[in-house]
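does this look right to u?? uridine-5'-diphosphate version
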Amino acid sequence: MNQGPTFTAGFDPVNTLRPIFVVGTRPEAIKIFPVVLAMRADPRLDPIVIASGQHPDMCSQVLRMAGIEPDISLSLTRETGSLNELVSGLVSQLSGVFEELVTTYNPAGYLPRLPGTFVHGDTSTALAAALVSAFADVPVVHVEAGLRTYDLHGPFPEELNRQLIARIAIFSVAPTMPSEANLIRESISSEQIMVAGNTGIDALLWATSQPVRFSDERVADVVASEGPLLVVTAHRRENWDHLDDIANALLRICSARPEVRIVLPLHPNPKVRDTLGGQLSDQPQVILTEPLEYVEFAHLLKRATIALTDSGGIQEEAPSLRTPVLVMREQTERPEGVLAGTLKLVGTDPDTIVSSTLALLEDPDEYERMSTADNPYGDGKASERIVQAFNFVLTGQNPPHAFGPGFSRSFVLSRTGLDYASLPHQQRSDDS
Ligand code: UDP
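got this back:
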């Protein structure tokens, strides 16, 4: 194994590497901030954070909370709300940014200082950034790779985005071994995959260790109360036609169990706000709120008796907090939780949502089974592993502690054309 001296002690700012992170939505920001912070702790790495403008408010709220000021913030024009408008806007804005970054940091004849672009998960931002980065010849690292339903319509367009990014990525960070197995089945070499756990668990453990002050007094009161509490979120595109059914189910749960309280942070999407907000605003057992700050939401989820959700991230987080999850989707790309017994798929049929919720509230044995199953999604150290692995690929030094079956540094490098350890150490004086 080449153990070249290039990035060892004495690394100077001119030769500091600038990995790029592109984030656009709340879940991406939540799951990528621990990686950015872990990377910042390494003096050789100075990440560039680009906020794509996909969901600017919710994304910047999370980044602010983590103390991250984006280096570049893009703003998108959204008129129709279509995916084509979104993705073409992202590609066009990001391509300008990448052109500039490549001119500044990767000029011909010098040590390339953009060693990779980190994209997360399955959003339009992740897809557009992966594409633009690959076209700019900056290798793509895909965090939270390998989740699959193999149904391009569910979740839509996330399943498609994940599959496409998998083709583009040079290095795939899978959260679990089943996700890694999906990638291997798709002919991605096990030598370019690392199983790290999910960085969302790193973020969650941090968030629940923080003191909390709820900005909405109704939420503060209900968290301090004793009775059964449901936390509900719904926003997925494939559920937009089922929001009436979800609202109807919640109303029926309230009439069947008058002591139940529901907190429902409304996603900013207008369809979600109109339908759920419109149908539930008069029900006194339901507290409709704006999206909660992440630390508040993490504490609320911890207090909740049950989470009813179509969210991906909440399926991973809730089991760490011993909160059973009823998933309002027909299928999930997170089958590990279903197998472990912490998640149950209930779809969007109101009868099933009502009967599953009441059954769980009324059956202590079933509740105990779901709430005490082990969380298969991570141990809170995923970000550390990712940064160690990235450094190891770049320098050949300090391999990460094994987690899963491992990856091959030389294989990943052979796909990039970069080998920092064998390049001469060059000083640059023109860009300090
Ligand atoms: N979340 C939050 N505030 C809220 C609702 C959710 O901070 O009011 C967090 C939640 O803890 C999880 C993430 O947002 O980490 C999930 O985001 P979302 O459901 O929008 O996306 P998905 O996970 O489905 O991609």
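The longest strand covers residues 229-233. idk if thats expected tbh
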